[in-house]
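Workshop exercise sheet. Pairs work together: one partner reads the sequence aloud, the other fills in the structure field after running the prediction. Swap roles for the next sheet.
Pair: D.N. / O.F.
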Amino acid sequence: MKTNNMPEVKLGICAVSRDCFPMELSARRRSDVVKACQAAGIGIYECPVTVENEDHMLAAVEDMKKAGVNALVVYLGNFGPETAETLLAKNFHAPVMFTAAAEEGSDKLVDGRGDAYCGMLNASYNLGLRNVKAYIPEYPVGTAAETAEKIKDFIPVARTLLGLSALKIISFGPRPQDFLACNAPIAQLYNVGAEIEENSELDLFESYNKHAGDKRIPEVIADMEKELGDGNKMSGILPKLAQYELTLLDWAEEHKGSRKYVVFANKCWPAFQTQFGFVPCYVNSRLASKGIPVACEVDIYGALSEFIGQCVSDDVVTLLDINNSVPADMYENNIKGKFDYAHTDTFMGFHCGNTAACKLSSRTMKYQLIMHRGLEPDKEPDITRGTLEGDIAPSEITFFRLQSTADGILRAYVAEGEILPVATCSFGGIGVFAIKEMGRFYRHVLIEGRYPHHGAVTFAHNGKALFNVFRYLGVSEIGFNQPKGMLYRTENPFS
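Structure field:
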């Protein structure tokens, strides 16, 4: 994904060596890993310093910082020095991975044995003593080629952690009435590295009005027309939408402060329509396609989750309501027997029109049907225009969320599935989603965990990376769609 609103990872690998093992063994194995990374298309800087003691550690940190390394692989080519290697992680002040070398052959188990399998245990223990976070693969010991694959898995995790450390969440609120589920205890935002700037809807309205007559508006309108194509059914609303898009983009640049990356969590109803004179959904979709997610209904943790998903997937994301059940006739006629899903595995994900055009099967500029009923009944749509509507294109997906829940504890869920090629027969940006054992997951994770109705969506299977990110962040409870026979803690075994 091409965007300036997400970090680039520059990997570095540093070998460590216990003083009673040959340093050359660890250094050679490190070079083999670098060659394997190059063969796999993974760019990585090879630190020439092999760390055996604290002086080496300081030299290695300095060398990698000069090289621009922002994500470190600490490689145990042999047993490794538990003090120096954990101080290396602590002093690097960036995402760190620990991995270890497998033994190379039965003919090398005397002078060529490294015991890194043992050393990983001591490394883990010392990381815990020092309260230093590190990414450790599911099975952290491997050959050079296997280690390269493990390093590849570290990249999206590192990109996400780097992004969070330089993220500012900008909100315009307050939340609409009866959306208490989108609450946002601030302390946990700081704990994951993000900053928060909360503003009034009036601040946004003032800035929007100041953009009236902006010379860039015609250029933005032209870009919107190109994107919408034949779906440009309400061209009269485009000047207001273009003005609003420029308002948000300028606000992001002017309010980054010390941070590098920005996401928004914005008020979008009910007074928005009567004062601004449009629905902001299409602009939200366009910013998402530019790599700047905009969460609906001032959902601050939704915006945070979207940014995490963007960093993990390196792709456009969206935020959807876990919205409605699939009608029985739709399931019987279009899903049963064609796809391996029970009726309760399916649901519809929906929002008014915030999903990027590139993720829709078709795209049409429309009006928000529900708001039109209440705000301008029996009239041609005016102030309710501005949604981007269409069925979301079939794709693998991951539905997930990071949330500081009602008790102030950071929790998360992750579930992989797909969007089915089934016509929704509905309105908005909407798709028929299928996740194995969704019914049980819905009851025993989403409801039992008191999660809000918004979920972030990536358009690929990114569960492994998301789970690893949440683990690195210290999230102790990560829900997932457990398979049959694996009971949830709250599930009735007699059901």
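Discussion prompt: The chain has a mean pLDDT of 95. What would you look at next?
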